[in-house]
Structures are given as structure tokens and as C-alpha cells.
Amino acid sequence: MIVGIDASRNRSGGARAHLIGILNESNPTENGIDHVHLWSYKKLLDELPDFPWLTKHSPKVLEASLPKQVYWQYFKLKKEAQNAGCTILLSTDAGGISNFKPSIVMSRDMLSYEKGEMKRFGWSKARIRLIILKYVQALALKRAEGTLFLTKYASEIIQNFTGRLNNVRVIPHGVGKNFKVYSKKNDWKAEEKRGIRCIYVSNASMYKHQWHVIKAVASLKKKGYPLELLLVGGGKGKAQELLDQCKKRYDPTASFIKQFDFVKHDEVPDLVAESDIFIFASSCENMPNTLIEGMSIGMPIVCSDRGPMPEVLEDGGLYFDPENPDTIQKALEEIINNVELRSKLASRAKQLSDNYSWSKTGIKTWGFLRDVHTAKISE
């Protein structure tokens, strides 16, 4: 059995982390697979070690414009995969349009399918792109012999639009081992701390709600809590404008709110571990990767009650409405003042994070590929 992987569109941090994670931490040859052929752009392939069971393909067209990449994917990839001897193809993005059969398509986008989320973008290029993606992805998912979702929530929401899909499997993302090495103490007392650092790791986007987080933190600051807010991740457009306006209004001297536009992923664990409270305020996710990272470190977490977040965090944090600063403030205040609750939640979150590892993700993914391949050849 020879597996082809189309990772030509893996540009997001989560998509790249997924591919690097399963290839680094699981061996497909131990799971019934003879060889893997991987198609992607050069920068991503260069981040991967060489393995005897892996052949990397980097067509020059994948460095070209998006229309040229789509042309290659539709007209060329099938032939290249056949020439390599591939017997099944994994598309790591549901926006892919390859004609190779049999195939498994991974769904990792949610914005197109969540009611109300697209409206945040107005009638813009971003919204038009999301509408097009919605139908392209739905077609790819319907045509595939197997569909891979990252959470049960995503599976249910997307199938409400597509109808029941063939051979569905839920395999969540893992988390890097570098997030699991910390042993945090969360028994600090608010009145004894000079500063309580809250951290929110996310790019600025309309569904991330950093401005509501700023309002909540500023309100607590006004009440006398020694809070600091660290926003890790840059942004542009309307979301960054809203964020900047709130920073200017509530912290004009930049005394307690800081934003880091870009931080290398391997530097994030230390930044999180050095903080006191982890905030996750997104209203739309397929798989909340940074939430799992915070859980793995053992952080006290206040979290959005939307999407798959309750499925992932379960009873390991306090929840709030990400569009209501008052509820964010209430959750923060409770976790600041209740030492026993804070320690209990952080311990539970870390325990739950044991469900997520790239080794588990890889083994389940290779197993799904094997099952679909076996079913196809036995028809």
C-alpha cells in the first residue's frame, strides 16, 4: 500500500503542524503502509526530516500563483500520483480538487459553515472567498471515499450542509511534546501578586474577539486587579483596527496591554508557561489547537463557550460568551479569586490534554487510510 499526501495548500499554522506532527511522531510502515509520497511547497518540505519511507515532491508550480496551483492539482496531480504508484490519496485540505481515486479528504475549515460567522466580514473579498470555498469543499467531501474531521462538532455542523458523508472518521490534532514538559503551580493568591498576566494566543480576526477581551481585562484593572494582557499574534484589516481602537481607549499609555505580532512557534510554550491565566475567546473553530496547547502546559483556562471548545476542554475550564465582555470579566474574576478552583481546573485541563498527541493522530490516520484502501480493493 502506497499513500500519496496532497499538502500543496497547507499554508496555515495548524495545517503545517498537523503534517509535521504525524510524519515526525508516527511511522506509517508500522501501520501497514509501505511508502508515502508527499506533494507540497519547498518551505514546508524543508521543515521535514528525511525518512526511508518518505519521498518528497515539490513541483515548481506550487511556488506560483493560486490559479496555477489549482490547475496543477486538477489536471496534473492524479497522473503524478499514479506514476509514483500511489494506491490512495490523502488530501489535507477540503479545498483540494484532485480527481485521484480512492481518496480521503480532511476538513479543517469552519468559517463557511457556522451561521453568522461569514457576516462578520461584510460583503468583502474574504466573504466571497468563504462562500466559494463552502461549495468547493462540500463537493470534495461528497466525492471522497473517506472523510476526516477533527472534532465531532465539525462533523455534525458540516454534514448538516452536505448531507451524510461516506465513511466518516473523527481524528483530532495532536500537540507538540514541547508543550507537555511543564509542571505549573497555580496556587498563587491574587493579593500577593504584583502582576497577573493573562495570555491570548491567536491572530487578530473578526471571530477571535480580542477587543472584547481587552474590555473585560480593562474593567478588572479598573477594579484594582493587577492584570496584564499579552496578545500573541498579529492581524490586519478591520479586526486589527478594532483591537487597536480598544488598546488606545483602555490603555493609551500601553501600560498593561501588549501585542506581539509574530512569535516563533517554538517560543510560544515558554510565553504561555510564564503567564498566569490562559484566555481563548474564539467563536469559530474546527479544532482549537492553541487551546490544547494551553491545556497541555497546565494553565488555568477561561474559554469561549462556542463551537467545539466544550467538546475539547470539557470540565477543565470556565466558560464565557466571547461577544459579551461582562461574562469574560466574570470568568476571569472567579478564576483569580478562587485558588482551589483554579488549581483544580488547571490540573483537569492538563489531564484532558493527554488525549491529544501527534503519535495518536498519526496512528489513527494511517489506520483510516488502510481501512478505506482495504474496503476499496475488496469491492
Structure explained in plain terms:
- There is one protein chain.
- The chain has helices spanning 13-25, 42-46, 66-75, 77-83, 125-143, 152-162, 210-222, 237-250, 268-273, 289-297, 309-313, 325-337, 339-353, 358-377, and strands at 2-6, 35-39, 54-57, 88-91, 103-106, 146-149, 168-170, 196-201, 227-232, 257-260, 277-280, 301-304, 318-320.
- The protein has two domains: 2-174 and 357-377, Glycogen Phosphorylase B (Rossmann fold), CATH 3.40.50.2000; 177-353, Rossmann fold.
- It is α/β, with parallel strands linked by helices.
- The protein starts with a strand and ends with a helix.
- The model has no long low-confidence stretch (mean pLDDT 92).
- Helix 2 links the parallel strand 2 (35-39) and strand 3 (54-57).
- The protein contains 14 helices and 13 strands.
- The strands form two sheets. The protein has a seven-stranded parallel β-sheet with strand order 3-2-1-4-5-6-7, sandwiched between helices. A six-stranded parallel β-sheet has the order 10-9-8-11-12-13, sandwiched between helices.
Tally the helices. 14
Q: How many distinct domains? A: 2
- Strand-residue fraction? 5-15%
Mean pLDDT across residues? 92
Strand order of the largest sheet: 3-2-1-4-5-6-7
Structural class call reads: alpha/beta
Which architecture of the largest domain does the CATH hierarchy give at level 2?
Answer: 3-Layer(aba) Sandwich
Shape summary: globular
Approximately how much helix is present in the residues?
A: 40-55%
Name given to the CATH homologous superfamily of the largest domain: Glycogen Phosphorylase B
Q: Major sheet: size, sense and barrel closure? A: 7 strands, parallel
What separation lies between the terminal Cα atoms?
Answer: 16 Å
Low-confidence stretches: none
Order of helices and strands: EHEHEHHEEHEHEEHEHEHEHEHEHHH
Q: Give the C-alpha Rg.
A: 22 Å
